[in-house]
């Protein structure tokens, strides 16, 4: 198994009928501002450097973000925050993430999610999370240079703790050393709910990636 084959399996996965139906339905319905787009409308594969030392784990693609563009954190508010921060700390060649062919490249970073299909209201069901976790387990195994894992949001943090069988308390910037020596860092998710309400400032957000870069060597 390698990352390319894993990516193909994700793209063709149909394990969660509710999500397969929803992503496809959103792709046909669209929203007015993206009516000219050919939506991806399928499971969204992970994205990044196969030699990554930092893994970033989000919740799931957004209905009109990753589910539209076919790339994680691409074409939505969370993606704007993520790549602006990665660029600021020198981990991405551009500060914007607009489409799969926009020339964006990351260095030493791999971006994935707990769930690869956009869920209604951004809320996957427990069984859907369970179904998709196997892909994350495989990525954790295949990306053997990863030293630091950044979990974006409580759900991603809790699922990583579950995979590793450790207890951790979620708060922005908290960290847990995992049994394989990797460090898990918790961060608020860069959704508008957190960034537009002042729950997470820009400095608090960028600090997470500066720390991840420093600790990943
Ligand atoms: S959420 Fe994951 S397991 Fe479920 S259909 Fe999508 S890719 Fe498959």
Automatic annotation (TrEMBL):
It comes from the Archaea. Transmembrane segments: none annotated. Gene3D superfamilies: Uracil-DNA glycosylase-like domain (3.40.470.10). Residues 45-209 form the Uracil-DNA glycosylase-like domain. The keyword DNA damage applies. Keywords: 4Fe-4S, DNA damage, DNA repair, Hydrolase, Iron, Iron-sulfur, Metal-binding. GO terms for molecular function: 4 iron, 4 sulfur cluster binding; DNA-deoxyinosine glycosylase activity; metal ion binding; uracil DNA N-glycosylase activity. One of its GO terms (biological process) is base-excision repair. Belongs to the uracil-DNA glycosylase (UDG) superfamily. Type 5 (UDGb) family. This is Type-5 uracil-DNA glycosylase. The lineage of its organism: Archaea, Thermoproteota, Thermoprotei, Sulfolobales, Sulfolobaceae.
